[in-house]
Fold these 2 entries.
Entry 1:
Amino acid sequence: MADRRGPPDTGEQRRSTDAGPMNDRKTAAVRHAIRSELAGDAPDEAPHALQTSSDDCVVELEHVSLAFDVPIIEDVSLATHNGETMAIVGESGTGKSTILKLVLRLLVPDRGRVMIDGEDITPLSFEEALGVRQKMGMVFQGAALFDSMSVFENVAYPLREHTDMNDDEIEQRVREKLQFVDLDPDRVMEQFPSELSGGMRKRVGIARGMANNPRIMLYDEPTSGLDPLTTGTITRLIMKLQRELGVTSLVVSHDIRAVFRMASKVALLHERRITFFGTPEEMAGSEDQYIQDFLGGFSS
Amino acid sequence: MPAFLTRLNDAAKSKVLTLQEYFVLAGKALRFMFARPFYGQDVVQQMDEIGVKSLGIVLLTGLFTGMVLALQSSVQLKTFGASMYIGNLVSASMIRELGPVLAGLMVAGRVGSGIAAQLGSMRVTEQIDALNTLGTDPIKKLVTPRLLAALVMLPVLTIINDFVGIIGGNIIASLVVGLPSAQYWRTVWVQIANDGFALRYIPNDFIQGLTKPIVFGGLIAVTACYFGLGTTGGTEGVGQSTTRTVVTSSILILIVDYFITQLLLSVLTYG
């Protein structure tokens, strides 16, 4: 169900007036494209296969606010259920990545609670938070692979840190994960991150994120800076992860087309607050002027 | 409150906060030396980076410092007819002061800048955040091995620096002054013995000469890690962190050297 929260944006009217009929046509075209995307993917790849109930929240934010010198996010509430893929979208600088950092407890909210598997992680100590983070795999915008380590060592890192697996088991797991992300282990394992293309780095980043078989995957702009074909590959990988392994995912992205393909829920951050929370279909069908502008903005 | 007082207050608070963060980082890094997991491989790698790879510049620095010391002192001592005491002068200067300080400054320039650049790059490319999300404390994984390696390797480099410096003095004493090597080395040892012993057997000069590099090693590693981990502002920020590391650690070495010397001279019984 669509949920329109937060105070009305006084800037929306102005933006709409300024946009004119050209923007209306663009918005309509994008919405049409999005609907086609949804319709095209629905039969075999729609990520709504795992049904959720209200009491199986995996990641939940309750009235979370955070400010540094200026407010970053205010009164943000979100809930992701088991096996869902939730996308957080919004303009640059609205605090999307901050939400991921709150979920990872790299940041602590000023107000509100962040719950992982029903456990409030806000009061945890730094050391306790390290334990909670092992439930999660994170894929960074620039992949954030360790430069000084080979691809094998990068993917094996979380296994060496947190498991008692022996070298053979680790190698087997690393090969399995690299194959899952469509990379040839024999070809890439000994390579260093600087020798890989952007798309390959992202895929190794996903393999490293999922090495420990986490139940939650977080993606920060997984498709930014990639060509359309590689964007498609990464999007399909995220969907495959959700479909085959039932992983709960949180995706921060600007790529609305990719978001509409992979997400079962979309949260729109605007002026530090969640102003829309619902399914991609509901978002595409929304008559809200800001949402229309926002979707239209991606076509320019 | 007048505006300038407010600014002064803010600036003072910021400095105190910086100092607090610096000591918290140093304290954590020291504490993690005694807590599992131990990153032994990283420590060995850093020992290679800090120690073995700095050997070349330390050898050159030591050799030429010893040589120039002998050369300068030969001119002065000759006027008093005391050229045979070159060994005393070179040995005392190298072991107590120049060995530790020059090795420290060289390592601050070569290794400190390297550490700050590496950790700074890791910060701006989100690799530090990646370590955190993979359940690893970056201080434990990155700072502790560097600190441990610096604490061990700087004294080793200083001993080599001292020794090579004294050999440099020997070369000049033989070639320029014509002092026999046996005579030179005898005066070196006489100087060390004359400066007294602590606990009967440990020469005071060695205590001075080895306390300093341990402290300098800690200063360099913590300063470099502090600025490296605190890097902001992309690649430009990495450059700034590197510069700050070299400047701050070099100044700290010179200032702390004075206070350690003052302290040790009052504690140790010389002569």
Entry 2:
Amino acid sequence: MSDSSFPRRHPLLAQTEHLRRRRFVNRVMELSAWTGAVIAVGVLAVVITSVATEGISSLSISFLTTPTNPFGQAGGISNAIVGTGILVALATLMAVPIGILVAIYSSEFAGPRSGFVISYVLDVLNGVPTIITGIFVFGLLVVGHQQSGWAGAVALAIVMVPLVSRSCHEVLTLVPDAVKEAGLALGASRWRTMLTVIIPTALGGLITSALLAVARAAGETAPLLFTSSIFPNLVQTDPSQVLPNIPVTIFQFSESPEPAKHAQAWAAALVLIVFVFVVNIVARLFSAQARRRIAAGRQ
Amino acid sequence: MNLDQGDLNVAHSGETTERRCPERMEPSRHVTIASGDAQPSDATDSTRRVRLEGLNAFYRNHHAVRDINLSFEPGRVMGIIGPSGCGKSTMVRCINRMHEEIPGARSEGRVLLDDIDLQSSEVDAVSVRRLVGMVFQKPNPFPTMSIFDNVAAGLRFTGTPRRERAERVERAFESAGLWEEVKERLTNPGVSLSGGQQQRLCIARALAVEPDVLLMDEPCSALDPVATLKIEELIGQLKKKVTIALVTHNMQQAARVADTTAFMLGGELIEVDSTEKMFTNPRDERTEQYVTGRYG
């Protein structure tokens, strides 16, 4: 501070080199985080808009309500919609109870060691490529018999179980211990406390977990390739028969030499993505409700 | 511990509820309720003695409670004081076997109720907790249940017939001094009440199953002074019906409410005596240092 003709700057107002660098680094980091977020949102936006623009032209009520016609422009995907509905419903009925029971065991009854083993196994199961799940179920249920809706549903359920149980576990452990202790101290057994106190508190989150797994299963293709892919072009509701489904239909349409079928593949993709989107939104609503309840118990 | 009416009215305006009944807290009314003439005959004034004999408690390798011998007398409030981490909560959690719910926790020694060892393998923890109720540090109403259902929860667990529940819930609310405040909104969520009301809701919930012993683990530490005063007054009424163990880190509270006071330090019971003696003329130097605020 050799320049004494000016009053000394107050330390709060000093523009030091250090301050300028700090501000610069801060801006750079903020900007790169922002860019990352924009890219993520952008990818989703591009996927949805391209599917929508390609698919919207072939989408109509009759597309949704008529079964597949193997030739030309006519026909729709009603058989695939019905089949996917049945496959996912069966898979959900198998996977959600098992997944929730696993989560109850690992969050409430398992010791630290077995809890760790269970969560590790579930992570590995979650990481198994779904084509391998498909081959496994093919070897188990299809070889010697035939493809069937049951086999497809089992394959989808195997994909769903780790998703449901891991996220349900997280939700159940979010319920405050104070609430659990209140039930136990009142003379409820652990199981009763689970049923009457913990599960109701976490219910929204459990439903969210199940719905997100449903959304994932609805779009899974690989587990169905070996188990439920050679289907007739008609509405089929008997799960002991091969059930048509949207993901395999999209694949088959896109392999077709006819341009009309390509457009129908886009339209089917649009149907699938809208379904997933809607399920996700509903899931968020339930998770918001769960958060409120859990927060009410935590205060 | 009686408050005069003027104080109470001031006290009331401090809380958030609107529906108030000024004569609600009139002490004589509570005495009538607490004396238990509306109780089934076997519950009338049936308070029980709890004795700890050589109680030790551990969290894995941590020896939290060391060789405690202590008797909780019927009709008297036992205040348990001591600095944070001295094992007072752990000790009372051994009485209703909540201690064993913590992974890695175990205990040794005997906890006797009517000369039956509550820790023995023949006694089920659930049956223990139906006789020994507990109120926790923070109010913990069941977040998904209404005000009514919170208090009825214990009755559902014990399989009380539905037709008896309404009456017993009302009685529990009255014993907890909460009936006038909640009777118009029993279907509202339990968590919609103020903190002090929530804690009295938790007391009502514990009382509804008519326990013989009530453990209160720092029940006022999350509450404002007005709500604290109400609960302290309530304890004075309840002791006629249930044997009460009151853990507190607030020495004034022990001085106001407890008939007998026990001082714990480092997991050990240093001294137990009548509250008056403990606060005026304790035998142990450490007790004196603690109650005079020079320690812990």
